[in-house]
Design goal:
8-stranded mixed β-sheet; 2 domains; 14 helices; alpha/beta; about 425 residues; globular; about 40% helix
């Protein structure tokens, strides 16, 4: 799709608050389109690393892109906001105890940029948020900056536009999907949405659809809840098939030959900062009626315990055996460990037989904090396969797919990803 012409924005500045897995790629893509971008983060290491043209996360082609836009002077970094025309907030929004949404990082970011706002600016929230958060952000800014007029439905003449536009990208393909995927842009007023749409069309080839802020907030939660519910069906099916001594991979493959059936693939649970978190925002908002969404979350979280119990049982059969746990990331071929079920499985096993576990994760150089000091060893794949009699596949990294089957001969294998389904 051809980009719309927005010549009036060509010298505009953009500030991206939060330089993590979404914020940094977003900042780099925006800078590549010709905007002058300021990347803001509270972590001095992140600010220094990106400011020197390097990256602190793994993502396909991101290193070259960041280096290029930094060298061209289109992307620089700081720890505090500075005046800009557009402010994008992409900070974490986890849940607290009891699965209560935690928007404290987001609100702190909002308060930090309030002093530098000026008439004509646009504030866009990209962080996944409970319904009503965009209006809450508007109210906070309105309180902090009474000299500016903020948008309200049915009221004209706002100085500042406030919008919500969540990302919908796949790790490993973020730079491609930031551009090609459609965007859902929710404004507190139609004028807010129109201003944000003009901004996004500078670098987004997908369709930019405008709606109300509350609708856009719910859309993001629905997208990830839909995926969570469907993964829960697959995970529950895998447990049922185990009980009935059936090969779940064969069952799914044959069921999916039906023209209107598309069962997803099971795993050790569900991870990542989106699917494992966002459904709880809906449950928290309406706990009485969000029954299926809650059950799906419980099924997927429960799969972690099920996998850990299965592995522990295998090790109990061979008291002297070592176990190789392959993978810690929440999905294949990335270094992102956030909410990873694989990490949780290994953590549960460490509490039982930590000194018998070898961990293989080619995308990290050290174990995460929650696995430190538990007797675990991070080793090379071939070292683990040479000395372990029990092998557990937790992540379907490409490097694991190419393992010589001869190295697996005589070993007990528990494959949660169907990577070696021919050995099941």
């Amino acid at each position: 799709m051809k980009h719309e012409s927005n010549a009036k924005f060509r010298t505009s500045d953009v500030a991206v608050v939060g330089l993590g897995y979404i914020g940094l790629p977003t900042a780099a893509v925006i800078a590549r389109s010709g905007y002058r971008v300021l990347g803001i983060d509270v972590n001095p290491h992140v600010v220094e690393t990106i400011g020197s043209g390097r990256i602190h996360i793994e993502e396909v082609d991101l290193d070259g892109l960041v280096r290029g836009v930094v060298e061209r002077g289109l992307l620089r970094t700081a720890m505090q906001p500075e005046p800009a025309d557009f402010f994008l907030i992409a900070v974490p929004t986890p849940f607290a105890e009891g699965h209560v949404p935690d928007v404290s990082y987001l609100l702190a970011a909002v308060r930090s940029l309030a002093p530098v706002l000026k008439r004509g600016d646009t504030v866009i929230i990209e962080s996944t948020s409970p319904v009503g958060t965009t209006e809450q952000v508007r109210d906070i800014l309105e309180e902090l900056r009474p000299d500016l007029a903020f948008p309200h439905e049915g009221r004209d003449g706002a100085d500042i536009a406030v919008c919500y536009c969540p990302e919908r990208v796949l790790p490993g393909q973020i730079l491609v999907e930031l551009i090609k995927n459609d965007r859902c842009i929710g404004g507190i007023t139609p004028a807010c949405a129109a201003r944000a749409r003009a901004f996004y069309k500078r670098f987004v080839a997908g369709e930019c659809v405008v709606t109300a802020a509350r609708t856009a907030e719910m859309v993001k939660l629905v997208e990830n809840s839909f995926r969570d519910v469907n993964i829960a069906f697959a995970n529950e099916l895998s447990v049922v098939c185990d009980t009935m001594r059936l090969n779940v991979w064969d069952v799914i493959a044959l069921a999916n030959r039906h023209p209107r059936v598309n069962v997803l693939q099971p795993g050790p649970g569900v991870g990542g900062h989106c699917i494992a978190v966002d459904p709880w925002f809906i449950v928290h908002a309406d706990p009485v009626n969000a029954r299926m969404i809650r059950t799906a979350r419980e099924v997927n979280d429960g799969k972690v315990d099920y996998v850990a119990d299965r592995v522990a049982a295998l090790l109990a059969e061979r008291p002297d055996a070592r176990c190789a746990c392959l993978g810690l990331a929440f999905k294949a071929n990335i270094d992102d460990l956030r909410e990873s079920p694989s990490v949780k499985v290994v953590e549960h096993l460490a509490e039982r037989v930590g000194d018998r576990i070898d961990v293989v994760e080619p995308f990290v150089i050290e174990l995460p904090d929650e696995l430190q000091g538990k007797g675990l060893t991070l080793v090379d794949l071939h070292v683990a396969l040479a000395r372990c009699e029990v092998v557990v596949v937790l992540v379907d990294h490409e490097v694991f797919k190419s393992v010589d089957r001869a190295l697996l001969r005589g070993k007990r294998i528990y494959d949660t990803r169907g990577l070696w389904r021919d050995l099941a």
